[in-house]
Automatic annotation (TrEMBL), chain C:
Pfam family, one: LUD_dom
Protein name according to UniProt: LUD domain-containing protein
Residue ranges occupied by any LUD domain in the UniProt entry: 52-233
TM annotation in the entry: none
Source organism, top-level taxon: Bacteria
Length: 490, 266, 235
């Protein structure tokens, strides 16, 4: 699949998302449920604003010294007997991973949830190898895989757009005979996946945090699938974005606490694991341990105004508060990374040509900035993207450049603005219609509303009525002049 | 106390009566009010759309205009515009057209003087009850920028508690944006429509007759959607509420009323 | 083993950052506040115990408090209640610490008992873990704030022992109840630095495996144990 999850143009994706009533309702419900859980968990911890500063300081420090931490981490993996591969591109990463699978004569690959492997489009590539099977073991990703590799729509809850009836239908195809009770369906998945786990020879996991001073990786899950993937198979391949580093377990532990509270409203996820290459005396755990560290254009953000986006710990809280995500869901964004974080990250990883619309898919309400546990100024980064697109790249993206320049002129020249104030009522005259006024107390001159305005006003009046602006003699400035003279003009 | 009104382009263009009510309330509370004549707009329409270069001169004009009249405070009828003016010193850090830092210096002075209307009344004038009466049911829409960028989530609620006869109803989903977002509402009108429709539903759930807010942009958006759907609502800016049917003998200071509870989460 | 493509990769990053490599020695990370250390610091041992109990039971975890003398009977009862063997036990010195050596013999006489054995192969140990109805582990800590037990892997107590059996019980001394993950991590780091701990895996386990992936309805036992019990032994 890779970074892009849709071939439809942006506006068509929005229309499609808008028409999916179930997904719509389930996302709104999920946001509301998560809202209470998250805020309660944070309040319980206390001093949340100071925790955020702590989390931010760890992430910023690591990014500022990223080459040193990556060097330390890879040295320590090496010391434990593991292997590290630095991949600049998705191709390099995929080639390396497929080579390992062939080298180890892997036949059954089990995977635990990893955004980065989705970014690589790794599953399809493994699936295409002769005599090798690949299985996603996170319940949500398993559901998507069995639904002919449906696209994930959330970074923490990938199958949030599916309801229980849809899951039941999907499971029927692999032998499920029960009803749509989530518990029964989860038991079925457990049994099905357990058999596959026991036969697995290669486990692929993601990595929440990589511990520089020990060469261990830190995994947070609720299901425990990552733990089976790193216990049973002889070979473990860890795939991580290059920015996942922390200095030591101490900092990982701090971020684990903040991640769990932000992502799912828990104090800690059910399983918080620190693990690496097994020791010679231990019998389970990976005896062949590989870490693939991926750049894939993350370095474009480094040293720029966008560096802060690499602080992200993938908690998904910004998706869970976002009013746009609430309406269009993950699929509306058309990127593996949806929501506010995705709108900032996707153009960096995949370029403006493909993802240039995303920074505009925000009302800049700043709910994302307000909730981010590591203080990423998300809405400001969206504005910075817009600046790059308009001022530096001169991209149009459907935005009416000429009209915006007129707005620019109108708002910087007092003369032009006063002219506009004088003539605005007449300027919009041709589009002004008498129409029943149900929203009262608008100025709405003579009860008239503009219902199909020209140019950018048309974007407005596609959705809403616009009250006809007041005539000049009713303007505030005119009134104020009279008022100052001692008489009210009414 | 000398107060300059930062009118905002939205109020100038669409909501003249909000300015009148604001002036009358402020004068009643003892302020000497003036309106700097060359002011236009804070620069958000272009800045937030990414036309940053085009925005420097908009901000410069605003700084010049607001600095032209000597005043103790600048008061604004829009939380969003207030927030952006407060942010001017940060925004102008990257301004290549202000090499000597003249505008930066002025921006810092203005930034310290500016208040949104409701916070000015409560936090600066120290007035809790403006003596207004409005016998009706209402709900309050909190604007995102006023709440999150300006950080003001309390004063409108506190002032509304003292409006005689007014029954306030909690707005479900109060934390969600109404879908205005400036140029977002026209550029991404498909998404904006979904958002404002959801807001209309939430407002209807309260059963309130009046929708109150401290941001004309949100009011224009939500009110316009109500009208398009043919649904009834009365939209009011807080200034219109506080200037409604006023009994001056009832005006009370913050120190004369019970300390209000902090605004409930969120 | 091997590290590939490192120099080019890291030099590129240093170039992007516009800063030479190897600056870290002079700029180590300094925690900007001590919230992790301060949180719950002032709780007494009794308060931490009740907090641990409350938070564990909320997960839900069956929470038992017992004495050394009563521990054997509690374990026997637990095994019977959970449907009996096969019971998987770790190979551990800690059976001595908890006076359980006699119990080990007794339980083996009444139930099918297997051991995670240091001398067994991966396949053998996984097989006993997979077929076990119940496994019992020794935990290093119980975290009061979150109701979490922490365990570290060893040749006698492997990783899968905690994940494959249907029912899971972990034993922890009362003196090992600490406020939160901060203290447990500090201990693990200290032990590793001193060369006293050679574990390839440290697990923080907070109740039974669960998932909210279907309509966000929480279901337990997706991959790991279906239910979890903690036994706090007064010491």
């Amino acid at each position: 699949m890779g970074l892009s999850t849709s071939t439809l143009p942006f506006k068509e994706r929005i229309a499609k998302a808008a028409s999916d009533q179930f997904a719509h309702g389930s996302i709104a419900k999920a946001q509301d449920v998560q809202y209470d859980k998250r805020e309660t968990a944070r309040a319980e911890l206390g001093h949340w604003e100071d925790w955020r500063k702590l989390g931010q300081s760890i992430r910023q420090h690591v990014l500022n010294y990223l080459p040193d931490y990556l060097e330390e981490f890879s040295d320590n993996v090496d010391k434990r007997g593991g292997n590290v591969f630095f991949a600049q591109t998705t191709e390099e990463a995929n080639d390396f991973i497929l080579d390992i699978i062939k080298q180890q004569k892997g036949q059954h690959v089990v995977k635990s949830k990893s955004m980065v492997t989705s970014e690589l489009g790794l599953d399809e590539k493994i699936d295409a190898l002769p005599d090798v099977s690949v299985l996603e073991t996170d319940l949500a990703e398993f559901i998507l895989e069995e639904d002919d590799w449906d696209e994930p729509s959330h970074i923490v809850f990938p199958a949030i757009h599916k309801n229980r009836d849809q899951v039941q239908e999907i499971f029927k195809k692999i032998g499920y005979q029960g009803d749509n009770d989530p518990k029964r369906m989860a038991r079925f998945a457990r049994k099905y996946l357990r058999e596959q786990f026991l036969a697995a020879d290669i486990g692929i996991t993601g990595c929440n945090f990589a511990i520089a001073d020990s060469g261990l990786i830190n995994l947070d899950t609720n299901e425990g699938n990552a733990d089976l993937a790193d216990s049973i198979p002889k070979t473990q391949i860890v795939v991580m974005g290059m920015e996942r580093l922390v200095p030591s377990m101490k900092e990982a532990e701090i971020l684990d606490n903040m991640l769990a509270r932000s992502a799912v409203g828990q104090k800690l996820t059910t399983y918080v694991t620190f693990e690496g290459q097994k020791t010679a005396q231990e019998s389970d755990g990976p005896e062949n341990f590989y870490v693939v560290i991926l750049d894939n254009n993350r370095s474009r953000a480094l040293g720029t105004e966008f560096q802060e986006i690499l602080q992200c710990i993938r908690c998904g809280a910004c998706l869970n508060v976002c009013p746009v995500y609430r309406q269009i869901g993950g699929h509306g964004y058309g990127s593996l990374y949806p929501g506010p974080v995705g709108a900032v990250l996707s153009p960096i990883l995949g370029g403006y040509e493909q993802f240039g619309e995303l920074p505009y898919a925000s009302s800049l309400c700043a709910a994302c900035t307000e909730t981010c546990p590591v203080l990423i100024p998300l809405h400001n980064l969206l504005i910075k993207h817009r600046e790059v697109e308009t001022d530096r790249l001169k991209m149009m993206h459907g935005f009416n450049d000429f009209q915006m320049r007129v707005v620019g002129m109108g708002t910087r020249s007092p003369f032009m603005f006063k002219m506009a104030l004088r003539f605005k009522h007449f300027g919009l005259g041709p589009w002004t219609h008498h129409r029943p006024v149900t929203a009262t107390n608008f100025f709405a001159y003579n009860g008239a509303m503009i219902t199909n305005g020209p140019g950018m006003v048309g974007g407005w009046t596609d959705v809403r009525d616009l009250p006809a602006p007041p005539k000049h003699h009713d303007d505030f400035r005119v009134w104020f002049k009279q008022h100052k003279k001692g008489g009210n003009p009414q | 106390m000398k107060v300059s009104i930062f009118t905002t382009c939205m109020m100038d263009l669409m909501f003249p009566q909000v300015g009148q009510d604001m002036v009358e309330v402020l004068e009643r509370l003892g302020c000497t009010v003036d309106v700097p004549s060359n002011q236009i707009c804070c620069g958000q329409p272009t800045f937030n759309s990414g036309y940053v270069k085009a925005s420097w001169s908009v901000m410069h004009n605003q700084i010049d205009a607001l600095s032209a009249i000597d005043c103790d405070y600048i008061v604004c009828p829009a939380g969003s515009c207030t927030a952006i003016l407060k942010e001017y010193p940060q925004l102008l850090v990257d301004d290549p057209t202000d090499p000597n830092g003249t505008y930066m210096k002025q921006a810092k002075i203005l930034s310290a003087k500016i208040y949104e209307f409701s916070q000015f009344i409560w936090r600066v004038l120290g007035i809790a009850d403006c003596g207004a009466t409005l016998t009706d049911t209402a709900t309050y829409h909190r604007s995102c920028h006023m709440t999150r960028l300006l950080g003001e989530r309390e004063t409108p609620f506190w002032l509304l508690q003292h409006v005689k006869g007014l029954e306030m109803r909690h707005l479900p989903g109060i934390q969600y944006c109404c879908g205005f977002g400036g140029t977002f509402s026209v550029k991404e009108h498909e998404i904006s429509e979904l958002m404002v429709t959801s807001k209309v539903q939430h407002i209807e759930e309260t059963g309130a007759h009046i929708l109150i807010s401290c941001d004309p942009g949100c009011l224009m958006n939500i009110g316009g959607r109500f009208n398009r759907l043919g649904k009834a609502i009365k939209i009011m800016h807080l200034a219109q509420v506080l200037n409604h049917d006023v009994d001056e003998s009832r005006i009370k200071k913050v120190s004369e009323v019970a300390a209000p509870a902090p605004a409930p989460f969120p | 083993m091997t590290i590939q493509n490192r120099e080019k990769f890291l030099n590129h990053l240093a170039e992007r950052l516009n800063q030479p490599r190897h600056q870290l020695a002079d700029h180590p990370y300094q925690q900007v506040n001590d919230l992790p250390q301060q949180t719950l610091k002032d709780k007494t041992a009794a308060e931490l115990f009740s907090l641990a109990k409350k938070n564990s039971e909320a997960l839900p975890v069956s929470f038992y408090e017992t004495t050394l003398a009563d521990l054997p009977q509690l374990l026997t009862d637990y095994i019977e209640k959970s449907g009996g063997g096969p019971v998987l036990l770790p190979t551990s010195e800690r059976f001595n610490d908890f006076n359980l050596t006699t119990w080990q013999k007794e339980i083996a006489a009444n139930q099918a008992v297997t051991y995670w054995r240091p001398d067994a192969s991966r396949e053998e140990n996984l097989k006993v873990a997979e077929t076990a109805n119940i496994s019992i582990s020794f935990a290093d800590f119980l975290l009061a704030e979150s109701g979490t037990i922490t365990v570290s892997s060893s040749p006698g107590q492997g990783r899968a022992l905690h994940f494959l059996p249907t029912h899971y019980l972990s034993i922890v001394p009362r003196s090992r109840i600490v406020p939160r993950s901060t203290q447990a991590v500090a201990w693990y780091e200290k032990e590793r630095a001193a060369g006293r701990l050679d574990s390839s895996a440290i697990h923080f386990i907070t109740g039974p495996s669960n998932s909210g992936d279907i309509e966000m309805q929480l279901v337990t036992g997706v991959h790991g144990p279906l239910d979890v019990a903690y036994v706090v032994v007064n010491d």
